[in-house]
Specification:
Layout: H1 3-14, H2 38-44, E1 53-58, H3 68-82, E2 89-94, H4 106-114, E3 123-125, H5 138-148, E4 163-167, E5 170-174, H6 178-181, H7 193-204, E6 210-214, H8 227-235, E7 237-238, E8 241-242, H9 243-249, E9 254-257, E10 263-269, E11 275-281, H10 306-312, H11 317-320, E12 324-330, E13 340-346, E14 352-359, E15 367-374
Parallel strand pairs: 1-2, 2-3, 5-6, 6-9, 9-11
Antiparallel strand pairs: 1-13, 4-5, 7-8, 10-11, 10-12, 13-14, 14-15
Length: 376
């Protein structure tokens, strides 16, 4: 029996999950993303401080590109076609893992086709580890930069994947957390201090408005898988400040992350009473061989025991001292978990409201709303 037949038989008998068939070829250069410019979109929609706007948020869709990623793109576009009397959608934000392995240029052509329903909106990405091949093959970074084109801005380059976008009354900072988890391709033990210096300068700026940070790797995660990376991210410091402290020093309101293939949301409050919210919007876990694989990625409901949980798993007590960590939501039920995207509405007065949308029956049954939550 051919190997493909064996895999199909195992899938039927055991629930083995098929993987999206991303091409492992580079027959053509990575295409340039054919989506509109962000600044031009703001001008077209006449976005000012007195007007509101909406942003769609997704992440880690490369693992669901055998149908659910496509369905998610269609549903976002379909929802926009039916809405009236709401602030305009000005961008799609992605927290990364947009292809299976970015060293294969043809994967970006497949991605461009998947994104066709969303071609009317700017698509802004914080680099994930899969499009960068875990910072191993430099060609992956080159392909990613080629694909993103001019959308991120003039300073976007293979070794400089962080950037900023401004909206009247708000700013969005896109970070390359791969530099802190994997290090440069020629030395995977080195943290990129250039990015931390840039972030520090952004946080020191006297900015009058709301601030969103987007990065692939979380600093908190209840999932078992990739827990060590979350801990490593938590411990990163610049001038003796943790990343979370840097964010609060700079007035960050919301941190968007991914990587774990789940959904959960936290509020972090420092000893001074300053707080921000962290939301992980990264699809859903799916089983691997013989049903294994989904459990370690699944978020856990740790509400009421957050501090003890993270301390027990290695978050340094001296760094947690005085902090409060609240898990506000977690997609922890295997029977109801579903692929999702978030819709962030920013009102003219600066109010943040997040509404989560979930695919029904893996995209075959439309979508359902998870309700609207204020990001305060």
């Amino acid at each position: 029996m051919r190997l493909s037949g064996i895999c199909l038989l195992l899938a039927l008998l055991t629930g083995c999950s098929a993987k999206p068939m991303w091409p492992t070829t580079s027959n053509n250069p990575a295409p340039v993303l054919a989506h509109p410019d962000f600044a031009a979109t703001l001008e077209r929609e006449d976005i000012g401080r007195s007007s509101g706007f909406r942003i769609a948020i997704m992440g880690d869709q490369r693992a669901l590109a055998d149908g659910e990623f496509q369905a998610l793109a269609r549903e976002i576009a379909r929802r926009e076609d039916t809405l009236a009397g709401v602030p305009p959608l000005v961008a799609i934000i992605d927290s990364g893992d947009i292809v299976e392995n970015g060293k294969y240029a043809d994967q970006f052509a497949m991605l461009a086709e998947i994104l066709t329903p969303l071609r009317h909106w700017p698509w802004l990405v914080a680099a994930g580890n899969h499009e960068l091949d875990n910072s191993i093959d430099p060609q992956a970074r080159t392909n990613f930069v080629q694909f993103m084109g001019e959308v991120p801005g003039p300073f976007f380059a293979p070794r400089r994947l962080w950037y900023r976008k401004n909206i009247p009354g708000a700013r969005i900072l896109f970070l390359d957390s791969n530099d802190w988890v994997y290090g440069p391709s020629d030395d995977q033990s080195v943290h990129n201090t250039d990015q931390l210096a840039w972030l520090s300068a952004q946080m020191a700026e006297d900015f009058d408005g709301r601030t969103i940070v987007v990065m692939h790797h979380p600093i908190l995660s209840s999932s078992k898988k990739h827990r060590g990376m979350a801990l490593r991210m938590w411990k990163i410091q610049w001038s003796d400040d943790l990343l979370a402290e840097m964010f609060l020093n700079g007035g960050v309101d919301l941190v968007v992350v991914g990587h774990t293939h789940s959904y959960e949301r936290y509020r972090l409050t420092d000893p001074e009473g300053r707080s921000l919210q962290l939301v992980n919007i990264s699809g859903r876990p799916r089983p691997g061989f013989l049903w294994f694989g989904a459990g370690p990625r699944r978020a856990k409901d740790i509400r009421g025991q957050e501090m003890e949980y993270f301390a027990r798993l290695g978050w340094p007590p001296e760094q947690l001292a005085g902090w409060t960590i609240e898990q506000l939501e977690a997609m922890s039920d295997e029977d109801t978990e579903a692929n999702q995207w978030g819709e962030l509405t920013v009102g003219p007065e600066g109010r943040f409201d997040l509404e989560m949308f979930y695919l029904v029956d893996h995209g075959e049954g439309g979508i359902r709303s998870g309700g609207v939550t204020a990001i305060d």
